[in-house]
């Protein structure tokens, strides 16, 4: 899971389209929020949760520490929101909408490629190492899990449920199947990358890995009963 914010990712979705009239401070507040989240993502990735201070984040964002607290309350809430925003920007909700007009394999591949790109970025690997450091705060690991991986697994389980309802899949345990899918995508490749033992595969290698994962998943869960029309 990367803590690097893509352009405009820190801006709430409602800020990207037409906005209702509001007080004169509203656009500035949205810009400040985005700057704080972007700065927080960089500081947490570089220094870890304990090493990054609210003073550093405020200075990096170009705002006062009071402004940071007024937007997010405390460092724990800021960390969780930074993780959530990054996750939602790289794997948005519409990625998990079961499109009846799209082939199941194609949708699974799109989800898999987005997930693999997210977890194998330099920032994501740095965050993973931070989480695995002995003595790291259990509260921080829990916040990271809830804002990132848990959200992704829950969204994918909902996607699977919709495809089961259509008769495309036969999945007796949706949560287990969701965990299996992402575990297959990580495989030993993610572990070796996190340990610095290999580089990220090229585009062809990523495609091969993703398609092999989707093949295995479908062999386990594709419906054997023809869909009634």
TrEMBL record:
Q: What is this protein called?
A: TetR/AcrR family transcriptional regulator
Q: What PROSITE patterns does the record point to?
A: HTH_TETR_2 (PS50977)
| Assigned keywords, A-Z | DNA-binding, Transcription, Transcription regulation
Q: Which SUPFAM superfamilies match?
A: Homeodomain-like, Tetracyclin repressor-like, C-terminal domain
Q: Key word DNA-binding present in the record?
A: yes
Record's Pfam families? TetR_C_7, TetR_N
Where's DNA bound on this chain? 53-72
Q: What is the lineage of its organism?
A: Bacteria, Pseudomonadati, Pseudomonadota, Gammaproteobacteria, Lysobacterales
Protein's UniProt keywords contain Membrane: no
Task: Report biased composition (Low complexity) as residue ranges.
Answer: 1-25
